[in-house]
Amino acid sequence: MLKILIATMTLVPMALLLKPKTLYQTMISYTFILATMSLTLLKQDLFLKPMSNMYFNLDSISAPLLTLSYWLLPLMIIASQHMLTSEPLQRQRAFLMTIMLLQTTISLTFLASSLTLMYVMFEATLIPTLILITRWGQQAERLTAGTYFIMYTMTTSMPLLMATLFLNNTSNTPTLFFMNTQPTNQWTSLLLWLACLTAFLAKMPIYGLHLWLPKAHVEAPIAGSMVLAAILLKLGGYGMIRMMQILPTTKTDMFMPFMILSLWGAILANLTCLQQTDLKSLIAYSSISHMGLVIAAIMIQTHWAVAGAMALMIAHGFTSSMLFCLANITYERTHTRILMLTRGFHNILPMMTTWWLLANLMNIAIPPSMNFTGELLIVSSLFNWCPTTIIMLGVSMLITATYSLHMFLSTQTGKTSSNLNTNPTHTREHLLMTMHITPLVLISMKPELIL
């Protein structure tokens, strides 16, 4: 665990010291080595292993998410290569350094065993992400997007800080896994729950606190979009699962407002997807709807539901990242993200159409993919909790299928815009897609690694 962590930290100065000729080759090969090493974390025997130490710990909740973040690290560099070629060398170095810094803070968040360290690192991920959005974003609105991003996440995480300090004072240990918090007063426990959940709900984001997400996604560069959709949204889910372990046990009925909001929010976000003209914005809203299901599942607090939430988070990480890569490949060819103007790509780049189809089918959660496993577990546990939810989930899935196919048809079929001088696809791009879809297919064959 520390081997990987220290190796990630050393990549930060390495981005500044490498020779220009070998910059990308070395960084990509090193991050691939790290990704391969992180696969061993999935197969630890967690019952034989003692608590690692005071500060770091890895268990079956954090290991899959940590591996996901390391797997996407080389893919982010590969996806950004075309964008970076036009930049001066110093900025390319700064970009790689920012990504490595972000990866370090993310892995420290997943590894933290003390609540305070987890909070500090959870907040520290904001800084590199903000730098990515505001410095390498495409349009002038990126500053507004950065402001939204910071305001939403910072405002909602203040209560979390207060709750962290309170928990550290009342329990005798700072470690997440041994905290025994049983406040006598019912109001105390309710306020604790609310304080801890708001920060993570805004990060997920739940509908209503979601306005920063489409803005941040649309303005961020491709690496920023990938890391936002695939990993930073999962920090919210991870934090919620962690908090469920240590906060005083509460009846699920207390969470009724949040669960109703998340399920309705999923439907509303899906309906918003149907009227989006911007490709990146559409994919961003689809993330909100999927995270709505995850929030509802985590709040049921049963084993099935949490397993389903984990499966859907991992599967969504790969799927949404793949969709953003495809949108970026289209954007690099046409220099527009408007759906009407990117049509007819099936005639020009037929192989890309295959990747689009696969990504959209994964987004719909077609069996036997991991997305389907996650959604099935979530649907069955929600139905067990309250049969009426099946209506909302059914509507949500119907609209998901509709907008996914709409996105596929409007980008791939039809007549192309006349003045399009398109480069053929590169091996780099096909490698990128293969590296997204392979883990999804392999995990579907052995799901107990992440459940």
UniProtKB/TrEMBL annotation:
Species of the source: Boa constrictor (Boa)
Parts of the chain that traverse the membrane: 23-42, 54-73, 94-112, 149-167, 187-206, 218-235, 255-274, 281-300, 306-327, 348-370, 382-405
EC number(s) from the headed UniProt entry: 7.1.1.2
Compartment annotation: Mitochondrion membrane
Family per record: Belongs to the complex I subunit 4 family.
Catalytic activity: a ubiquinone + NADH + 5 H(+)(in) = a ubiquinol + NAD(+) + 4 H(+)(out)
Predominant place of localization: mitochondrion
A Pfam family matched in the record: Proton_antipo_M
Top EC group: translocase
Assigned keywords, A-Z: Electron transport, Membrane, Mitochondrion, NAD, Respiratory chain, Translocase, Transmembrane, Transmembrane helix, Transport, Ubiquinone
Stated role: Core subunit of the mitochondrial membrane respiratory chain NADH dehydrogenase (Complex I) which catalyzes electron transfer from NADH through the respiratory chain, using ubiquinone as an electron acceptor. Essential for the catalytic activity and assembly of complex I. Core subunit of the mitochondrial membrane respiratory chain NADH dehydrogenase (Complex I) that is believed to belong to the minimal assembly required for catalysis. Complex I functions in the transfer of electrons from NADH to the respiratory chain. The immediate electron acceptor for the enzyme is believed to be ubiquinone.
GO cellular component, one term: mitochondrial membrane
Domain NADH:quinone oxidoreductase/Mrp antiporter transmembrane as annotated: residue spans: 112-399
Protein name per the record: NADH-ubiquinone oxidoreductase chain 4
